[in-house]
Design a protein that fits this description.
19 helices; four-stranded mixed beta sheet; Hypothetical protein af1432; globular; alpha+beta
Length: 405
């Protein structure tokens, strides 16, 4: 205990960070980079307090993992020191593969490479640097370790990742609908037949958790102004890349310039892991913001417009509908925007953006949350509650374009 580091977290208070491999990983440049990655992307343009980072989230998730392990051990669940350390390493590094502005640019910088896959590549690289000390953590992270409940604490419908981000994001946005009883849920955790379960008396806390998650998605993560800003950021990056392919690359920091000129695939990362991870590890929110500020004066009018609109918060209008937009309405919008902008028709691909967003607070198609009833029977959440889980799935179609009136 004398070597334990203390962090004062605004959400949980004082958090203990054990010395050794965990603290060494926190000190590593790969992990320190998370200080420069916003947890909720551009949400601060709507909720000004949402300036917390992936670093905050990772430390918070580690804290909740430590709490969960302590609770499970108190209930007779056998978790060795090596297993506890492995689970803690896995949750600490679960988001280390996030790029600038978290999820927003995940599919704009690469072709078909997810942040989970990049996190695994970083973990494998760190495992080599730390002489194999992450091997167990990697097995737990991938779900290959026999004690499945350890993996479920990292990746599942009631994992420590979700538990922290709901709690933390509601705190920093000030959206109280997202507050969850994380401490009670953790105290209700147990293990049966190697699987994570929740004791029946915690079922209402789980229902509150699911409701909070649904509300946070539509009120915060998929807020129409947040979504508009994120789509504009993607459009600016795609325009900068298009110019780079034409030999007209706009000014950018070395790591951003690399990813404007290259669009690595999953196979590229597998084949040239160390080189590409090295480039990626240098890329963060600051590169993107610096790029946008430079591009405000770009010769390309479209890139300059997109960049200045983001920097000065002149955000596009975004319309949500429950059904796809009528084609005639789309054509009217495109015609009006083209006439207003005075740009070539190709600009419409960047100025009139349509898509859809779906969210389900709970899904039966994945491993369900298991409820341990007082009679010893373990049943899935869908068979343990009268809360209508089926009605929670929602899909909304959107159309995003500049405000011209």
């Amino acid at each position: 205990m004398k070597n334990k580091k203390i962090v004062n977290d605004p959400v949980y208070g004082f958090i203990g960070l054990p010395d050794g491999i965990l603290f060494a990983l926190i000190e590593h440049p790969y992990f320190q980079r998370l200080r420069r990655i916003k947890q909720t992307s551009l949400t601060h343009l709507v909720y000004p307090g949402a300036l917390h980072t992936r670093f905050h989230h990772a430390i918070g998730a580690l804290h909740l993992m430590q709490e969960s392990i302590e609770v499970l051990r108190s209930k007779g669940v056998e978790i060795s020191e090596a297993e506890a350390e492995g689970a803690c390493i896995a949750i600490l590094l679960h988001d280390i593969g996030h790029g600038p502005f978290s999820h927003t640019l995940e599919h704009a910088l690469f072709k078909g490479v997810t942040h989970e896959e990049l996190s695994l590549l970083f973990m494998e690289r760190l495992n080599e640097a730390f002489d194999g000390q992450l091997s167990l953590a990697i097995d737990i992270f991938q779900g290959r370790y026999p004690k499945q409940f350890l993996h479920q604490l990292i990746s599942g419908q009631l994992d420590m990742d979700r538990m922290d981000y709901l709690n933390r994001d509601s705190f920093f946005t000030g959206v109280h609908e997202g507050v969850i009883g994380y401490d009670r849920i953790i105290k209700m955790l147990s293990v049966r037949d190697g699987e994570l379960v929740v004791e029946e008396k915690g079922i209402y806390s789980i229902e509150k958790f699911l409701i909070a998650r649904r509300l946070m998605y539509w009120q915060v993560y998929l807020h129409k102004t947040v979504l508009a800003a994120e789509r504009m950021l993607i459009a600016a990056l795609l325009r900068a890349r298009a110019l780079a392919k034409q030999g007209r690359r706009p000014p950018a920091s070395p790591p951003l310039a690399f990813f404007l000129e290259h669009e690595p695939t999953r196979e590229d990362f597998t084949r040239n892991r160390d080189e590409l991870l090295g480039q990626f590890a240098q890329l963060d929110d600051f590169d993107i913001v610096s790029g946008l500020k430079s591009w405000m004066a770009a010769e390309d009018k479209l890139l300059a417009f997109l960049s200045s609109s983001i920097i000065n918060r002149r955000l596009f209008r975004l319309e949500f509908r429950n059904k796809p937009f009528d084609e005639a309405y789309l054509q009217d919008v495109r015609r009006d925007i083209l006439a207003w902008s005075g740009l070539e028709a190709e600009a419409l691909d960047y100025l009139v953006i349509r898509g859809k967003e779906s969210n389900s607070a709970y899904t039966k198609s994945k491993d369900e949350i298991s409820i341990l009833h007082k009679n010893g029977q373990v049943l899935p959440m869908s068979q343990s509650t009268d809360y209508d889980l089926q009605s929670r799935a929602v899909t909304k179609y959107f159309l995003c374009y500049p405000k011209i009136a």
